Amino acid sequence: MSQISRDEVAHLAHLARLALTDDELDSFAGQLDAILAHVGRIQSVDVTGVEATDNPLKDVNVTRPDVVEPCLTQDEALAAAPKAEDGRFAVPRILGEEE
Hints:
Radius of gyration: 29 Å
CATH architecture of the domain at 6-43: Orthogonal Bundle
GO molecular function, one term: transferase activity
Organism: Mycobacterium aquaticum
Subunit structure: Heterotrimer of A, B and C subunits.
Family: Belongs to the GatC family.
Number of strands: 2
CATH superfamily of the domain at 6-43: Glu-tRNAGln amidotransferase C subunit, N-terminal domain
Order of helices and strands: HHHEE
Strand content: under 5%
Largest sheet: 2 strands, antiparallel
Strand order of the largest sheet: 1-2
Oligomer: single chain
């Protein structure tokens, strides 16, 4: 028995703003029905007594620690800039913004 109808596929396509042809609706209905059948078979497996598995990747927050290192001063950074104003990089105005 089919678990998903062509009308349900059309409704889902409408919600997802997808324009599907009649052939695509028929094709996707069959494909989604096959997927749901496989999921149903997996859900029916008896897992009584099977212990849940854990994440095999035990590493958590594997980022490096924050370390203060020497860097450019404001003047050194601005020295290479094509244009600077008031201690900041000056860039061309975009999108017609007003000052």
